[in-house]
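Same chain as my last thread, 83 residues:
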Amino acid sequence: MPEEFSLSRLLWACRRGMLELDVLFMPFVKEAYSELSDQHKLYFRRLLTCEDPELFAWFMGHEVCPDPELAEIVDVILKRVKI
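reply #2:
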């Protein structure tokens, strides 16, 4: 699969129902995704399968993500994208 196609699909998956999540995910994918390790890319793709209310709670610090792998990529994103 060509990288452009993968990136296009990934950007499409980053379009969420909450503007707050779009503001996090879209810049992260455009600016940092290509630099991630293969493992972190996998974690990020898994993260995108989560529901918006869960994601919002994790990124805004209202809840701690119970999955250590997803919590790791949440931390990576928060350190990379300034909100």
